[in-house]
Design goal:
Layout lengths: L4 E5 L21 E4 L6 H10 L3 E3 L14 E6 L2 E6 L10 H11 L3 E4 L5 E6 L2 E6 L20 E8 L2 E11 L5 E11 L8
Parallel strand pairs: 1-2, 2-3, 5-6, 6-8
Antiparallel strand pairs: 1-9, 4-5, 7-8, 9-10, 10-11
């Protein structure tokens, strides 16, 4: 498969508070991986306009979508990418539990949601990414007192065994001015790593 941008987002909850809508234009993104908690049809329709290849897994609040899978696997380049909402990972967000899930799914990259907080790291040759909440929806238990969720999403560009992750975060400066910051994180699958 040729390189194409893949949008990774989840935990939307508040569709009318979608600060990134103007950045997401049709024709630029080849696939969307939604990590659950889409929660309304209008957001689903909007995402389908952005990319017709919309892959969604069930979040713990997607009660009107009983037929959604809890997890899925897609292939990009030579990488197998698994994704899940994260509410089935126990303890939630635990790196060892995520590693077990990645091994069970036989993936190089595991995307998970549920915490509403961006995170990306490598562990034992695998890459783990939580895109956070695209709307900055609040989640109890994940943020220290006084800390607010930062709206975020990710774009992935996969070429062969290299994944380049672009992390978009809406940050507010000391004067209350909002700006979108973009960070770049790269992952290369170890060529000595066994593949299925």
């Amino acid at each position: 498969m040729a390189s194409r941008l893949v949008l990774v987002l989840g935990d939307l909850f508040i569709p009318d508070r979608a600060p990134f809508k103007k950045l997401l234009t049709p024709g630029k993104i080849g696939q969307i991986l939604c990590l659950g908690n889409l929660t309304d049809k209008e957001t689903y329709d909007f995402l389908r306009q952005i990319a017709p290849d919309l892959q969604i897994v069930k979040g713990n609040f997607d009660v009107d979508a009983p037929n959604l899978s809890l997890s899925k696997v897609v292939n990009h380049g030579s990488l197998r990418i698994g994704f899940t909402h994260g509410h089935t990972i126990i303890p939630a967000g635990d790196s060892d539990s995520l590693l077990i899930a990645a091994r069970h799914m036989d993936v190089d990259v595991l995307l998970w949601g549920g915490t509403h907080k961006f995170e990306a790291y490598e562990l034992e040759g695998k890459f783990f990414v939580n895109p956070g909440s695209a709307t900055g929806a609040f989640s109890s238990g994940w943020f220290p007192d006084g800390e607010e969720p930062i709206p975020s999403f990710c774009l992935m560009d996969v070429q062969g065994d290299v994944l380049v992750l672009y992390v978009y975060q809406l940050k507010t400066d000391a004067n209350g001015v909002e700006n979108v910051g973009v960070e770049k994180v790269s992952f290369r699958r170890n060529s000595n790593q066994a593949t299925s």
